[in-house]
Write the structure tokens for this entry.
Amino acid sequence: MMWVLLLISVLLPAMLFGAMLSLFPGEDEPPRWRTALARTFERWAHALRRPAPPEPPPANPFDALWVQDRLTKVADHVRRLELDTRGYARAERIIASQLAYDQLLAKACDLAGVEVEESPLGDPAERFREEVELTSRGWSW
């Protein structure tokens, strides 16, 4: 029993002083509270930093060809609807086709770098302006 008390009385203070000594930094390492604070600040800074915006993908020339082809087909469809005087729900079909044409024009303007102004749906003045701008930049359909 005496050996147990002797071991406890020697080992317990040694472990306690060893634990307290580990709290103090050595000569080569910074204090632990400083490294913990630095890690916290790094996490905050990383959360606040915004990643750089990704580079836009290179323009695909076939997108412009596809839009020109669709513009041609939709414009021909609108012309056919305007010439057909007996078509069922003719007005609704013309309006829907013109809205599709306007959306294609907006996409073509985006591809050509033409600014699209805010206007009501189906505005003929804006449609004409976009057509003139695209034609002046070499687009044809």
